Amino acid sequence: MKIYTQRLEQISTEQIFDTVELTFDTRQKSRFRATLSNGTDIGADLPRTGILRSGAYIATIDGDVLRIDAKPERLMQVTALSDFELLKAAYHLGNRHVPLMLTPNALYFEPDHVLAEMVIGLGLTVHEVEHPFEPESGAYAQHGHEHRHDNRLSPIKSLHHVH
């Protein structure tokens, strides 16, 4: 079994690679096993440096490259009659700190009947669909800052609160 241990920032256009579709849950893990479409079993033991996004590349120590694609999975799709309604739903779902995928015409989240009922109560439409899941990483994750819910300020936040 090939074991992939490196994350690659980019690959050359001449490189040949296999692909594997993984769910969001698996792409969050640094260690996992998967099966390629050709039936080959592989393993991953990667550095813990964040989520594997769709289109990411990983490699073995021997230089074998694998492209990661987001696998379609069961999700709740939220649609609305207006952009403002969709914005309101994004606000309320985000306030519950659930992984949320934003698109211009819909929001997607992992199945949760309580959240679905809340969104329907706001007047939006919710459907269960099969769709690749690529949720937002959040403003703190994009800049390497920690998200905290206590009263201590990080050094970065302290700079923004000086009067």
Automatic annotation (TrEMBL):
GO biological processes: protein folding; protein-containing complex assembly; urea metabolic process
Bias kind Basic and acidic residues: ranges: 143-152
Alphabetized HAMAP family for the sequence: UreE
Residue span of region Disordered: 137-163
Name of the protein described by the UniProt record: Urease accessory protein UreE
Keyword Chaperone among UniProt keywords: yes
Annotated UreE urease accessory N-terminal domain residues: 2-66
Lineage: Bacteria, Pseudomonadati, Pseudomonadota, Gammaproteobacteria, Moraxellales
